[in-house]
UniProtKB/TrEMBL annotation:
Keywords: Hydrolase. GO terms for molecular function: hydrolase activity. It comes from Paraburkholderia ginsengiterrae. Gene3D superfamilies: alpha/beta hydrolase (3.40.50.1820). GO terms for cellular component: membrane. It holds the Pfam family Abhydrolase_6. This is Alpha/beta hydrolase. Residues 43-267 form the AB hydrolase-1 domain.
Length: 276
């Protein structure tokens, strides 16, 4: 069992061995609210252009509110984790691979055992929200609950259009320099995400048929002003997982933890408290 000693920490690194689905990986991770050694763990899964540092202080604030210990990590290709080789394209099922292979391997590397996993919560944003849903479906007995923030369960025109616009901004403005503050290899992060979302083969991607096994408490959150997805995303989750609870935030775009942190934290805290 991981037993951190400090209240906050710098990034550490976990070495994941090669498997049939991936080569050896070095994963950047960080514990927050570390002194709460006996508290349940909340695992944070970042967005498609995210990393540990892009979360800023939100995981810390939420963990303090929930009385949980937080695990934040950068997925392969992001932050200080192993970059994506520039000649490698993410496959259409890249999010399923993260839920099926990478996250369980990271938990193994950190000696997070099954009893700890059964009390664990996943909190994911955007692509990380989709991975959260997939993990909850694939590992229904290794989780206490899940929060999916602005997740994707199928591809909408608004998503593709916004991602195409982001590519133009990346290649013509200072967006690349700004994102470079958060990733050791910013092109690895950006084009890994952008290329797969703009790949015509990805247009038919959906995980709606994979959500039915979710048994744990599930909260899905969406902002009314999200330019990467509509309310159809979380409404579809409710159709597939009838016990899911939905929160729809006014005056909020694609990043509720930045756009409406107080409302988001209130919603998550209220939902988690009902499960105790």
């Amino acid at each position: 069992m991981q037993n951190p000693a400090a209240a906050t920490s710098a990034s550490e690194f976990a070495e994941l061995p090669a498997t049939a689905s991936h080569g050896p990986l070095r994963i950047e991770y960080r514990w927050v609210n570390e002194t709460a050694c006996d508290a349940p763990i909340a695992v944070f899964l970042h967005e498609g252009l995210g990393s540990i540092s892009m979360w800023r202080d939100w995981p810390q604030a939420l963990c303090e509110r929930l009385g949980m210990r937080g695990l934040v990590y950068s997925r392969p290709g992001y932050g200080l984790s192993t970059p994506r080789p520039h000649d490698v394209k993410w496959p259409v099922d890249f999010m399923t691979a993260q839920a099926r292979d990478i996250l369980p391997a990271l938990l193994d590397a950190l000696d997070i055992d099954l009893p700890e996993r059964r009390s664990m919560w996943l909190i994911g944003h955007s692509d990380g929200g989709s991975i959260t849903l997939l993990y909850a479906a694939l590992h229904p007995d290794a989780l206490a609950g899940a929060v999916a923030i602005a997740p994707h369960v199928f591809v909408e025109d608004i998503s593709v259009e916004s991602i195409a616009q982001t590519k133009q901004l990346y290649e013509t403005t200072d967006l690349r320099a700004k994102l470079g503050r958060y990733h050791a290899d910013v092109d690895s992060a950006f084009y890994g995400w952008n290329d797969i979302w703009l790949n015509p083969a990805f247009r038919d991607w959906t995980i709606t048929s994979e959500l039915a096994p979710i048994r744990v408490p599930l909260l899905a959150v969406q902002g009314h002003d999200d330019n990467y997805g509509t309310m159809a995303q979380i409404d579809t989750i409710a159709d597939c997982v009838p016990h899911a609870e939905l929160v729809k935030l006014d005056g909020c775009g694609h990043s509720p933890h930045r756009d409406a942190p107080q409302a988001l934290n209130e919603a998550i805290a209220a939902f988690v408290s009902k499960q105790k």
